[in-house]
Amino acid sequence: MAKKNKEKEFVNRKARFEYEFLESVEAGIKLTGTEIKSIRAGHVNLRDGYCVFERGEMLLRSLYIGEYKEGNQFNHEERRPRKLLLKKQELRKWEKKVKEKGFTIVPYRLYINERGLAKVEVVLVQGKKVYDKRDTIRQRENKRQMERVKKQYL
C-alpha cells in the first residue's frame, strides 16, 4: 500500500493583495530542532515576514514560528532572524535588484517537501498603489458574481 504524502503548506495570502509579484525562488531555511517540530505542528504565520541582506546572506526576519510545547529550556525565539539557503549567484542577483530599484523580498509560501525539509518560496515584489488594490477587489467581486450566475443557470 502506497503511503500518501500529506504536505503541510502555509501561504501568505495577503501578499498577493498588497504586492505585485515579479520573480520567485525556492530556498531552504536554517532552523533549530524545536522550530521544525513547531512547523510540522502548524504553528507558523508568514504575514509580517520580510527578507534583508546582511554580510552577503539573506535573512528572513519577523517570521513567526510558535514555541514547541515540549521544548522546555531548549525552545527557540519565536521571531528570530533565520538564514535562507540560496546559491551565491542568486543572492547577488537579488541583492542588486533590491538595491537598484527599491523592490522588496517577502516570503509567500512555507512548506515541508517530500524529503522532510522545510522550504520557503520567497518573492521579489513591488508595492501596489491604492488604485491597483481597488482594481484587484473589483476583479475578485466580478469573478464571484459570474460564478453565482453560472451556478444559478446550470
UniProtKB/TrEMBL annotation:
<comment type="similarity">
    <text>Belongs to the SmpB family.</text>
</comment>
<dbReference type="GO" id="GO:0003723">
    <property type="term" value="F:RNA binding"/>
</dbReference>
<dbReference type="GO" id="GO:0005829">
    <property type="term" value="C:cytosol"/>
</dbReference>
<dbReference type="Pfam" id="PF01668">
    <property type="entry name" value="SmpB"/>
</dbReference>
<dbReference type="InterPro" id="IPR023620">
    <property type="entry name" value="SmpB"/>
</dbReference>
<comment type="function">
    <text>Required for rescue of stalled ribosomes mediated by trans-translation. Binds to transfer-messenger RNA (tmRNA), required for stable association of tmRNA with ribosomes. tmRNA and SmpB together mimic tRNA shape, replacing the anticodon stem-loop with SmpB. tmRNA is encoded by the ssrA gene; the 2 termini fold to resemble tRNA(Ala) and it encodes a 'tag peptide', a short internal open reading frame. During trans-translation Ala-aminoacylated tmRNA acts like a tRNA, entering the A-site of stalled ribosomes, displacing the stalled mRNA.</text>
</comment>
<protein>
    <recommendedName>
        <fullName>SsrA-binding protein</fullName>
    </recommendedName>
</protein>
<dbReference type="InterPro" id="IPR000037">
    <property type="entry name" value="SsrA-bd_prot"/>
</dbReference>
<dbReference type="GO" id="GO:0070929">
    <property type="term" value="P:trans-translation"/>
</dbReference>
<keyword id="KW-0963">Cytoplasm</keyword>
<dbReference type="GO" id="GO:0070930">
    <property type="term" value="P:trans-translation-dependent protein tagging"/>
</dbReference>
<dbReference type="InterPro" id="IPR020081">
    <property type="entry name" value="SsrA-bd_prot_CS"/>
</dbReference>
<keyword id="KW-0694">RNA-binding</keyword>
